[in-house]
Write a sequence for this structure.
C-alpha cells in the first residue's frame, strides 16, 4: 500500500495542510459541537487549489468530483437529521483532497470509525448495563431502537472525529478497503 501524499516535500505539505484542517475541525467540534463554515470552506479551497497546482484542469475536475461525491454520500443523513450540516461540509471538503474513489473509501472508513465512536460515546454517557440491555432488547424488538431518546439524552456526538479518521485513513492508506 502506498501513501497518496508520498514523495516530494510539496506532497508532505499538502498532507500537513489537510491534517491541520481536520484537526482544527475536531477541536472545534469537541468544544462547541459545531464546525465553522469557514473551516470547511478553507479545506475545500485548499484541496481544489492543490489539485489544480498538481494536475491542472484535470486535477481540479477530479477534486471537485471528490467533493461532490462526498456531499452526495452524506447529504441524505443530514436531510434525515441524523448528522449535522458541518459534518457533511467537512467531509465534502476533505473529499476534495481524495477524489471520487477516495471519497467512497473515506466514507466507509468514517462509517466504521463512527460506529466505534458511537458505541464508546453511549457506553461513557449511559453506562455498560443500560447500553447492554437496550441493545439486547433492541435485537429482539427493533422498533424500540427507532423510538426517540428522552430529551435529556439529546446531546450531539462530535462526529468530526470519525470523519477526520476516515479521511486521513483513506489519504494515508489508499486502497485499504477498496
Amino acid at each position: 500500500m502506498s501513501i497518496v501524499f508520498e514523495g516530494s516535500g510539496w506532497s508532505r505539505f499538502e498532507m500537513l495542510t489537510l491534517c491541520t484542517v481536520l484537526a482544527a475541525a475536531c477541536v472545534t467540534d469537541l468544544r462547541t459541537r459545531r464546525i465553522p463554515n469557514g473551516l470547511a470552506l478553507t479545506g475545500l479551497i485548499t484541496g481544489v487549489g492543490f489539485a489544480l497546482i498538481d494536475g491542472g484542469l484535470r486535477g481540479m475536475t477530479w477534486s471537485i468530483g471528490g467533493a461532490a461525491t462526498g456531499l452526495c454520500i452524506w447529504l441524505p443523513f443530514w436531510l434525515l437529521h441524523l448528522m449535522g450540516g458541518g459534518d457533511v461540509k467537512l467531509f465534502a471538503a476533505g473529499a476534495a483532497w481524495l477524489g471520487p474513489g477516495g471519497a467512497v473509501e473515506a466514507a466507509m472508513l468514517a462509517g466504521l470509525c463512527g460506529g466505534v465512536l458511537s458505541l464508546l460515546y453511549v457506553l461513557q454517557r449511559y453506562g455498560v448495563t443500560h447500553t447492554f440491555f437496550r441493545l439486547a432488547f433492541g435485537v429482539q424488538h427493533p422498533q424500540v431502537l427507532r423510538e426517540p431518546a428522552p430529551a435529556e439524552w439529546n446531546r450531539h456526538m462530535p462526529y468530526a472525529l470519525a470523519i477526520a479518521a476516515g479521511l486521513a485513513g483513506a489519504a494515508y492508506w489508499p486502497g485499504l478497503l477498496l
